[in-house]
Amino acid sequence: MIRTLRADEIECRVQMIKDDGSGCSLILYKDARADMRILDETFGITGWEREHQMIGNNLYCTVRIWDPEKNQWISKQDVGTESYTEAEKGQASDSFKRACFNLGIGRELYTAPFIWINLNPGETYNNKGRMALSSRTKFKVHHIAYNDNKEIVELEIKDQNGVTRFQMGKPQPAPKTQPQQQPKQQPTTNQTNQCIDCSKKLTQGEETFSTKNYGKPLCFNCQKNHQRIG
Questions:
Q1: Considering the chain, what percentage of its residues have pLDDT values greater than 70?
Q2: How far apart are CA 83 and CA 72, in angstroms?
Q3: Summary mean pLDDT of the chain
Q4: Per-residue confidence (pLDDT) for residue 184, from 0 to 100
Q5: pLDDT at residue 176 in the model
Q6: Which of 92, 111, 126, 222 is the S-S candidate for 218 at Cβ 3.0 to 4.6 Å?
Q7: Burial 2-37 (b: 16+ CB within 10 A, else e)
Q8: Residue 11 reports pLDDT greater than 80
Q9: CB burial string 132-156: b at 16+ within 10 A, e below
Q10: Looking at 23-27, 69-73, 211-215, which range is the least confident one?
Q11: How far apart are CA 202 and CA 193, in angstroms?
Q12: HSE on the CB side for 49, CA within 13 Å?
């Protein structure tokens, strides 16, 4: 089974910035290295392959995984879009990541909430009439958790200074370990109706009389060596 992405495998990208620079929205995404790592973990380094081909003016990627039960390759394909730099390389990487989405890698990111970050003065600047994020301002996923349906239920995003800037759900604290309680010791009782000094066996009447008058079970002779109470 393909596992979900860890927090350190998810990156944050600015989707839009408010015109006055007071806030921005983020989207979550994965890079190709995370895809290759999970493919290696799940299917082995020889259990998958990729192929790129031009169809029309678009670059497509086909990712195949080996199914030992069916004894055949299972293929997933998708098309890429150009990046702002290195258009051909950007299409290759994007088409690969999209094909891996079709396999189920990182599909849980589609359940991410709308992420809005309130920005502080100095975290944005005006770039030719458009607001842009300062190069010093970084956001990263610090914590993420999923339910049984692989839907995101907890998410925490921090900035480069370790300050929490967005949080959904509440991480559950580790359960506190309760100190093991020692069984209470029961007070010692004279279970055998014996004198505690000489061990002579006492009748019930002798024991009752001695306990009432001397505070302990004593035979008649040993009572002489103790002072009565009361």
A1: 87
A2: 34
A3: 87
A4: 58
A5: 62
A6: 222
A7: bebbeeebbebebeebeeebeebebebebeeebbbe
A8: yes
A9: ebeeebebebbebeeeeeeebeebb
A10: 211-215
A11: 5
A12: 7
Q: Which domains does the chain have, with CATH numbers?
A: 1-27+108-171 (no CATH), 31-105 (3.30.160), 192-230 (no CATH)
Note whether 192 and 209 are within 8 A (CB): no
Q: Which of 9, 26, 5 is nearest to 166 (CA)?
A: 26
Alpha carbons 108 and 224: distance in angstroms, whole number:
87
Contact 167, 182 (CB under 8 A): no
d(CA 170, CA 172): 6
Say if CB 156 and CB 164 are below 8 A apart.
yes
Beta bridge partners of 67: 72
Q: What angle do CA 182, 184, 189 make, to 5 degrees?
A: 145
Q: What is the pTM of this model?
A: 0.69
Cα separation, 182 vs 41, whole angstroms: 47
Q: For 161-219, how does the pLDDT look when each residue is reduced to its tens digit (9 = 90+)?
A: 999 999 999 765 555 656 666 655 554 444 457 887 888 887 877 777 777 777 778 88
